[in-house]
UniProtKB/TrEMBL annotation:
Protein's name in the database: Enoyl reductase (ER) domain-containing protein
InterPro entries xrefs: ADH-like_N, ER, GroES-like_sf, NAD(P)-bd_dom_sf
Pfam families for the chain: ADH_N, ADH_zinc_N_2
Entry keyword set: NADP, Oxidoreductase
SMART domains reported in the protein's UniProt record: PKS_ER (SM00829)
Annotated Enoyl reductase (ER) domain residues: 10-296
Keyword Cell cycle in annotation: no
Length: 298
């Protein structure tokens, strides 16, 4: 099969399309012929070496496709989305232990554009317990998770303040001083940009606010000195990890895909690329010129 293998760390050129043997399926896994493969931002950080990666192996974590083999023979021929923490998705065939059935009528491109980000967003919204009338700050609302977060918070009756690297959001986060523009009285922050200047948000928070720290788009984790949190009764939740919130995300996946399939949460696709153009796809994500998900077609 054709698959993309990472050779060292660096620019998009370290991702090379090669002929590889098809993966063997372990018990509990589904073997899937892929139809669409997602390219989330953190994979560019893995490829560049900002996030440490393991030895060379088939790259990628999110794919949608048709089940070739599974423990349950009834799954054969069904369309699923697969998620893997260990790679293998940038390929014509993937074996994965985490999967969800794609609701009827949802294309593989839309399914892979939604499965991880919509379920992460839904789990974040539930964990924060966003309520009607609250004011919510969604950082990087131009991204897949941020976009779903903004829509879910609005659907719950919250007032949503968004940031993005363009002028269409409430605040343009390309300005290094953007946090000064955040209005006071924020009840919930969905913190994905990170970095030491995240602490500037503390002054903008209402008493008993909740900070959900779930990303590091800037390349650094956010810093919040505890003194500023104690004084105002603020809760800081680190959201991530396969054994912590990963289970919550997996549990919310079917509900999230249902909201996507019934039109409540339409996914946004930026561009699709053939698998052979994987380097161009990574360059597109890194360019930050698009809005929505970049998808590879094997
Ligand atoms: N905790 C978890 O369970 C979990 C799970 C999945 C992903 N994540 C994390 O969630 C975050 C968002 O992921 P995603 O898949 O939604 O991303 P995505 O769809 O690939 O979008 C990337 C976004 O990043 C923004 N961005 C890139 N570099 C930035 C920078 N230096 N400063 C500010 N914004 C920047 C872009 O905004 P502009 O181009 O508009 O500037 C764009 O909105 C990532 O950090 C990812 O690692 C966490």
């Amino acid at each position: 099969m054709r698959a993309v293998v990472q050779h060292g760390t660096g620019g998009p050129e370290v991702l090379v399309v090669e002929d590889r043997p098809e993966p063997a399926r372990n018990p509990g896994e589904v073997l899937v012929r892929t139809e669409a493969i997602g390219v989330p931002f953190y994979e560019t950080q893995l490829r560049s070496g900002l996030i440490p990666a393991g030895p060379p192996s088939v790259f990628g974590h999110e794919a949608a496709g048709i089940v070739l083999d599974a423990d349950d023979p009834n799954l054969r021929g069904k369309r699923v989305v697969t998620m893997s923490y260990t790679g293998g998705a940038y390929a014509e065939v993937v074996a994965a232990s985490q999967y969800a059935l794609v609701p009827g009528g949802l294309s593989p491109e839309l399914a892979v554009a939604a499965a991880v980000p919509a379920s992460v967003a839904l789990a974040l919204i539930k964990t924060a317990d966003v309520k009607a009338g609250e004011t919510v700050l969604v950082e990087a609302a131009s991204g897949a998770i941020g976009g779903f977060l903004a829509r879910l918070a609005e659907q719950r009756g919250a007032r949503v303040v968004t940031t993005a690297g363009n002028t269409e959001a409430d605040i343009d986060h390309r300005d290094p001083d953007w946090r000064q523009q955040v209005p006071e009285g924020i009840d919930v922050v969905f913190e994905s940009i990170g970095g030491p200047r995240a602490a500037e948000l503390t002054a903008k928070l209402a008493p008993h606010a909740r900070i959900l720290a779930y990303g590091m788009l800037s390349g650094e984790f956010p810093v919040f000195p505890v003194a500023g949190l104690i004084a105002r009764g603020i809760t800081l939740i680190g959201f991530g990890g396969p054994d912590a919130y990963g289970k919550r995300v997996a549990a919310d996946r079917a509900e999230a895909l249902g909201l996507v399939a019934d039109g409540t949460l339409p996914p946004v696709i930026d561009r699709t690329y053939p698998l052979a153009d994987v380097a161009a796809a990574h360059a597109r994500v890194e360019s930050r010129e698009g809005v929505g998900k970049v998808v590879l077609i094997p």
